[in-house]
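User: Okay, second chain of the day. Same drill as before: sequence in, structure tokens out.
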Amino acid sequence: MNLEPFFNPKSLVIIGASRKEFTFNQTVLRNLLDIRFRGNIYIINPNTDELLGIRSYNDLSSLPEVPELAIIMLRNNLKDLFEELGKFGIKNVMIESELGEKSINGKVIQELGETCYKYDIRYMGPSMIGVMNYIDNFTTSIIPVRRHILQKNRGLKYGVSIIIESGGLAGGLGWWSPSQNLPISKVIHLGEGYKIDIADTLFYLEKDETTRVIALFLRQIDQTLIDAVSNIAPIKPILFFYVGKDTVAEESLKTAGGLAVQNYIELFEFSKLFLWLPKPGGNKLGIIGPSSGAILLIVKEMRKQGLSLAKPSQMSQDLISMKIGGSTCEYGNPVDYWPPKKFIGTEICTIYYLGSEILLNDDNVDGLILALEFFQEIEFDFYIFSKIKEKFPNKPIITLLIQAEQEGAKRVVDITTELKIPVFENEVERAVRGYAMLLKYYKDIKKE
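Assistant: Same drill. Structure tokens below.
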């Protein structure tokens, strides 16, 4: 089904918008104004002439057009309200209010189903936090959405879309964003999801050009979801974190092509790998680092994940030995440049540039992990990797910050984000697992 009006409508009507500040019923409208929604906004509230500068109408028949979307903030008389919506010609409805006790809820849902069939209405909810469309400046969230979050995504063409079965976690993305400014297309909380469920939404996201990666936070897994993932995972990567107890269903979702992460934050941390990195050529990695300890942390996790150290060609080995030296092993990988001749950032910069160039130019190296364990004196300008990325666009590069001095670490995070190079701060194991998951997806799931 076409769900575009729920995520990017040209016009909408809010039924039950309130004059009371700091209420859900007013926050929806305030959010739309704060983020500068470009469509037409109408309000139905017979008790006021205007709200936050928007004209208020007494009833639907007074509206100058039939809006593409209706957002309901009321919990009573929904059957009669849906009848009015159907007669007026509105086809898409969000119910963001609670419906009360389950016994009452069930009866109301049945009645709404009959009315929806009669008038060909589709609805999301009830009990929705709402949706956020970062790219098109649209939200129906009942929790505040900060303009600066959307400004971070201004001008983006694509990102990750996240479906979250938690109102609090979904709403939190209206004011919080990961440290590396992950590009987000949409955040979706479907509430009870009676008429439109996660599977329906996944099929919409499959066709959505602004969604390149899908992330799911799941309380439950049913067969319709498993079937949807089975169809969509070969086309777009689907990461999920499941908090339920049905291990059989969880395994079925993995078998269908879902990529299970170990914790909630990995939905964001691994999404950037799928958004920013090219398809890995294999499991043989090069490593550049300043100490055997940092390198061994990486290697240990690589063994657990079925990844191996690349053995560069003899020519590459000779170049590394001649141009870099240090404690680097006889095979030239990992490149352990310690100790440097001087604590000077320009010297360390040259080592990383030359080491990256030599390793990535080698056909035996499929990808590169950079370990930065630096302090102020040896910090260097990470923009050198813009040239490296241009020269080797088909080989993944992941950066690790290990005990890096704070100010320098922040500069690296800012630059790597600009260059679209994933960086992990003191999370060696997570970075390596992420590469392994990326490799697994392209090797076993992705449809070429």
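The radius of gyration is 26 Å.

User: Thanks, on to the next one.
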